[in-house]
Design a protein that fits this description.
The structure holds four protein chains of four kinds.
Chain A lengths: L1 H25 L22 E4 L9 H5 L5 E7 L17 E9 L18 E4 L13 E3 L5 H42 L6 H32 L11
Antiparallel strand pairs in A: 1-4, 2-3, 3-5
Chain B lengths: L1 H13 L5 E5 L11 E7 L2 E8 L7 H7 L2 H9 L6 H16 L5 H30 L3 H21 L8 E2 L2 E2 L7 H24 L2 H7 L7 H6 L5 H5 L6 H4 L25 H25 L18 E9 L2 E9 L5 E7 L1 H6 L2 H5 L4 H11 L3 H5 L1
Antiparallel strand pairs in B: 1-2, 2-3, 4-5, 6-7, 7-8
Chain D lengths: L1 H9 L2 H35 L15 H11 L10 H17 L18 H22 L3 H32 L4 H7 L17 H24 L11 H4 L9 H26 L10 H4 L5 H25 L7 H28 L1
Helix pairs in contact in D: 1-2, 2-10, 2-12, 3-10, 4-5, 4-10, 5-6, 6-8, 6-13, 8-10, 8-13, 10-12
Classes of the chains: A alpha+beta, B alpha+beta, C alpha+beta, D mainly alpha.
Chain lengths: 238, 383, 176, 357
Amino acid sequence: MSQYFKNIWSAISTVSIGMKVTFKHLFVPAVTIQYPDVKLELPERERNRLYMNMDDCIGCDQCARACPVNCIEIETVKSLPDEDLGKTSNGKRKALWVTKFNIDIAKCCYCQLCVFPCPTECIYMTDVYEFSEFKRDNLIYDYATLSPEERVQKKVNYEKFEAEKAAQKAAAAAAAAAKKAEEDKAKAENKEVKPENKEIKPETKATDTESKETKTDDKTTSSGNNETKPENKEDKTE
Amino acid sequence: MAADIENKTTTNEKLKTEEMILNMGPQHPSTHGVLRLELQLEGELIVNVKPHIGYLHRCFEKHAEAMTYPQVIPYTDRMDYLASMYNEFGYAVAVEKLLDIKVPERVEYIRVIMGELQRIASHLVALGTYGADIGAVTPFLFCFRDREKILSLFEMTCGARLLYNYIWVGGVSHDLHHDFLRLTKDFVDYFRPKIKELNDLLSFNKIFIERTANVGILPLDTAINYGITGPMLRASGMKWDLRKDDPYSIYDKFDFDIPVGDGRMGTVGDSWDRYFVRVLEMEQSLRIIEQAIAQIPEGDVTSAIPKRIKPVVGQVYSRVEGPRGELGYFIISNGTVNPFRVKVRAPSFVNLAVINELCKGHLVADVITVLGSIDIVLGDVDR
Amino acid sequence: MKTTEEIFNLLKEKFGDSIIELKTDIPIEQFIVVNPLEIDKICNFLISDNDLAFDSLMNLSGVDDANGEKKTDESGNTQTTGGTLSVFYHLESTSLRHKLVLKASTSIENPEVSSVAEIWRVADWHEREAYDLLGIKFLNHPDLRRILMPYDWEAGHPLRKDYKNPEYYQGMKVPY
Amino acid sequence: MIYDFFYNLTGSQILAYVIGSLLPLFIFILPFALVAVLLERKVSAHMQDRLGPMRVGFHGILQTVADILKLIQKEDIVASPNDKPLFNLAPVLVFAGSYTAFAAIPFTSAFIGSNIDLGIIFIIAITGLVVAGILMAGWASNNKYTLLGAMRSAAQIISYEIPTILVVLTLIMITGTASLNKLSEMQSGHFWNWMILGGPGLSLTKFLFIPFMIIGFVIIYISTLAEVNRTPFDIPEAESELVSGYHTEYSGMKFAMFFLAEYANMFAVSAIVVALFFGGYQSPVGYLGNTFHLPWLIPIEQFFWFTFKGVFFVVVQMWLRWTLPRLRVDQLMAVCWKYLIPIAFVNLLIVGLITVL
């Protein structure tokens, strides 16, 4: 019987305590803000929309590799040795035409993994969060600064340059082969005098020098990208 | 006279009542996500509960095999999206054990502070939605108002509010904001009386007690056999918390005690105990945060982050005490940059399996009460 | 509190050949390789023996070892044959505070492991997940069906290394 | 009084009756329902530290008007397997059930819908009609959840009418009349003549009644709360379990009918409690009309006091809704049969003994 009245008493007392709490909250000022009119100011490390400052980009593809969802697509074309692409803000020489650089912000997961490995700190996240679109492919941001014809044109003249170089190399190789042929003939006459192996050694050395030679001129052209091979973990502390 | 009484009973047998299958389907206001519970009902009494999961399966384990070690971290965030800081913490501890690297002292303190703040935020969601499931909407709003303060603390340090990618393997992505410690201190002082207010409003409310005491009682031996961990296991009376029983990071530096369910409002291990253990745990987390703020040393946080993570061929199973239970990472590495296999022991996946045992013989309304007290997150269940 | 070696020796003389070997060279964790069809007897012993008392199964994970030989036939695509699927059991005793890792590996053609769902109820869903994602059949499992993937997913088991996403699933395009 | 006025105007009895009882419907209840919806959203908002509707009109004043316009132009979905006639009849029944209750409630001394002697008994009988409407809605929507919701609400409303009737019996025993109009006139004068404080006159029994009148008030308030399906008894439309119970399948104007019927019911119920215990339209502190000898001012003041008390109790209902969790179905029945009915009986017996003294 006493449990009966205890129940009633605890019901009434706890209900009234609860109502006292909510009544008190009638006079507490509201914590909510009216969004479109009043906007919350965001901290400066806010991570919302990706921004790409194109004239600093050297096309090193570090950010595209670091992105877990592959939402950054970059295509670069090597610049011709004579063309000068200018310097990035922190003094690195640019050597690659970035013909395509688009970020699919719809796929981006805002994890900021692309911002850290960038050597020239040209990709970072701004605090803009109102960028919704009606069509989904408007969300693919194209940052490349070259106009479409320039992109095609860059590609074309790079192929042309490539073809020239290949032809040049072929000619040089042919000349070298011809020269080597005479050498063999000359060596053939006085072969009995010298033992077998010494001949082979200079042979191989010759080919080495030759291949090194071709490698060197590749290097000159692509010096842009491996010289600036970024030390990949350069952290940007705030 | 006896005859018609007699045949009345026979008509009763003929009056065969078959069970009603009620689908508490993937879209239901109180299944905490896309979970389908197939209830076999006898009138309103429950005969059998068959959970169907997999609606939110995004194959985290297949993704992890294609990513490099640092790239997996944004994916761990999306598993238990209400406690993503702790998922990262668990993953980072596992990979650091595999690489066997030592993390600077300051990073350990930052991780503990962030982890405990995330535990409070996750418990606030659990308690708030639990109140809303039982019918009291106001505590839900109060809990989310306090959780906003924690989210803005996270937003200040790493820029994101829900999925952070903040704790990296070997360190953290940003150092603490200069007035982060002060604001956390203010939050701790602000939040303590709010717990008391929540207790007045909901925990000791007679109707709430009536609805949750002696509902879904989980005896201790079935709990261990079902592999239940976290607040559910502690509510069933076992003092088992990985922060003390299998210490990782620097939890042994702080003194805090582990609340255990004692059947104050009904029997040990009922829904009320599971609810109240979470409330007490929030207070303990506040104590940890206070001590951590007091003792945090200076130092660089990104010094131990390895440039390229290529662990030696091997495997590790490491576990941490997430807000919902034991969060285990079993990582097998084959010496390359990508993990060979990452298996996650998700606490909600294991805790949900016991719902059939708990709900037998209760009413439809109790399924919601028991499901709310188990506190599952479907991202964690389906991975 | 027993180390893995002591447990290994204990099991070795109790079960003889069904305990295959103790692997200690792989870093971080040593584990005992066990015959997959005997696993339930071994686990019964592990849980019932009072100085082992492994009353809680922490984690049960299926792994595709991807150790089949690769043959690239004329059209260039590689065919892997052979290879094993293995199941790792992470056991723990809450009272005696010691841990144990078991490994049971079966061939990929007909992967069969006897189920421990009767011993630890937690294994029920983990085994269903291993079946669903890797195709390991657990013998006398109470209710072995897919748990995470849609029930009628015919395109095989996703976590296998040679898994290809199907083009269509019930008329819906799968790769987006 | 209003009846005679219309009788002279129209000359026919039936017409006068019809207009007389319909008047409260259009002039008072519809605007009240609009205000009550907004009031609920604002009260609940401020209790939860938020602002509630702020966009439509100044501080959200026109929010409910916007809602009604939206509901009117919303498509009225009737699913194919639904039992069409029942499906369409249900909201009408619920709407009619809760609005006819207003006919017998005395708004002012000058105006009462229909001054029948069995006023309070009529009201309780009519609210029974709502149960039929809810059952129809639950069954016709051909959805397991609504069926469960309808079953629960039928059990709830029927079983909570018993404590209401018991408390009404105690009052009829004391005052000897069942007509709300006479009851309100008896409680004239200042607030110490109200029934909650033992009714008119200064006899010993008046003071003996006070505790039992308070118990009676609490019981009738709780049971009418259950009849209107308000928290902590809002199980038929328990959002968390039954996805809003019997009116899940309704949309557009039909849903608006259910919605307004609920708010009208809230006012009807609190009006009954006010008429029974808190002196109906009598003012607690005497009338300005008397002091300034302006007889026409009194009915207006009475109307003001009546709505003030009614709205006060509606706000208390809202206050309860945003504080308390929801009871389970069997606990709901336990509260009614194990707590409210026995106490109401004992209350009835003791009051009976006192009146005999």
